[in-house]
Amino acid sequence: MLKNNAHGGEVHPRVPSEREQGQLNVLEGEISRLIKAEISKLTQIYLGSNALVLEINRVLADTDEGAILAKVQEAKQLLEQNERGLEALRRDYRTTETRVQELKRFVETISARPNNEERNPQESMENELTSFLRSPNTPFSKERIIKASEILRRELREVSAIASRNEANADTKMELVKEMFEESTLIILGIKKSQETKLAHDAHQGLTRNKEIVEALVNGTTGLVGVVGREVTKSQGEIDRCVLALGEFQDKDIVEGNPRDLCTEIFRGVVLSLDDSKQITTELVLKSSKIERYFVNSKILLNIVRRHAKPSKRGKGARKDDENDGPSGSGSSTWKRFRKSTGLSVRRLRSIF
């Protein structure tokens, strides 16, 4: 909240005006939409490619030449489609980068402006708190001290709201991951482990790990939210103690002596507590980001379990191709045609995806 300048004195960071804040919000909103669109395109490319690789794995286990050649053509089409998608993403990235640089320059411009430019009520109130803490000998009325206390109350509410949102999000994602794990468990219990169902079993193991990690992250989140809650409650009680000590004064009365000293000590303690709580909320946001990644990964793993839980029906006498050397015997000609059509080995094709 309070920062030191190069000469050791405390200065308050400039708050943008309402017009400037509106411009910042527009830029931030545009950047957020661009990023979400890019993530959506990347996710589609990943899911499409992943699904095709899994299909190729299944088809390569058969010796049906028609099915293999069909998958070759499908792979070529998907690679061409992905190439167009990635080129669009490169253009989107350049656009996003341009907007981010605009936002950076705009913020730097605002920060360089003097504090008295287009001052708004919020900035004025925050300066009241700064002045109160920095200048103990400056006359302050009860009304001005109450205004300074409201700044601290507002920041306490904001910190508490951030902690609560992250806790609620963590709990929701954990319940969804548990539901996915339970569904996957029921599916896996109904099938035997074999080469054809290996992908499903491996995906279930990944889901199991995800559930354990998310549970640990959520437990950590709950503990941190508890710390923030206790700090906020304590700080609110201290501010109430200051206000109670001002009870005998009228709004315009100058407060001196013990009530003023008491409120100064209380407000400084609340500022320190807020700094600690804000550091904790930063950690909470990081944990929420991790939980979100494991949640998305769990959805992908569950889809793999659903897709590969049932063994495929193979014709009599079908052989399984070796992924490195190709099938033996009569199937080797099909393998050679497959490699000739793609110019790639199976291992190389998998590495592309």
UniProtKB/TrEMBL annotation:
<keyword id="KW-0175">Coiled coil</keyword>
<protein>
    <submittedName>
        <fullName>Uncharacterized protein</fullName>
    </submittedName>
</protein>
<feature type="region of interest" description="Disordered">
    <location>
        <begin position="1"/>
        <end position="21"/>
    </location>
</feature>
<feature type="region of interest" description="Disordered">
    <location>
        <begin position="311"/>
        <end position="344"/>
    </location>
</feature>
<feature type="coiled-coil region">
    <location>
        <begin position="69"/>
        <end position="106"/>
    </location>
</feature>
<feature type="compositionally biased region" description="Basic and acidic residues">
    <location>
        <begin position="9"/>
        <end position="21"/>
    </location>
</feature>
